[in-house]
Amino acid sequence: MALPFPNSGGAAVRGLAWTLPAGWREIPGNGMRLATFVPPGGLKTEATVVALPGDSGGELANANRWRGQIGLPATDEAGMAAARTTMTTKAGPAAIYDFTGAGAVRTRLIAAAVTTGGTTWFFKLMGDASATESARPGFLTMIKGLTPDAPK
User: Fold this and answer.
1) Which residues face 147 on adjacent strands?
2) What confidence category does residue 9 fall into, taking pLDDT thresholds of 50, 70 and 90?
3) Cα(23)–Cα(98) distance, rounded to whole angstroms?
4) CATH class name, domain 33-144
5) DSSP conformational letter for 59
6) Residue 130: which residues within 8 A CB-CB, separation 6 or more?
7) Rounded to an integer, what is the distance from CA 66 to the centroid of its chain?
8) Nearest to 108 by CA among 61, 40, 21, 44
9) What is the pLDDT of residues 82-130, one digit of tens each?
10) What are the residue ranges spanned by the domains of the chain?
11) CA–CA gap between residue 63 and residue 77 (Å, rounded)
């Protein structure tokens, strides 16, 4: 299964579309990233989007991968369920995870996963804990606004 490719508009990819929060910039993706989103104000955090076929390893594996990215130990099904909230979007339900690392330099990671048309879309906001908290409302507004995008 081929991955979707960005359209010329940058804010839509076959299968899913989004609207950037006011002041955010979208940088075209490279490699597995379809796009990178930068909040205004020089915050030390950024959001990315990746789309993969199927469930790409499953919910627990993905949650533990994100936890590992910020230095947290793996969790089990119960811990994952306790960390998950769900948001309704026009593209389907989005599972939202919010993890903050421990230590002197605190990193925070907020991830959203939406499955549509056999593809799982992963949106991740990650960076300095306080900067990520500042960017969180805009990021979640973008996730809430996800809509299906018909193939071109």
Assistant:
1) 17
2) very low
3) 23
4) alpha beta
5) H
6) 106
7) 11
8) 44
9) 999 999 999 999 999 999 998 788 999 999 999 988 899 999 999 999 9
10) 33-144
11) 10
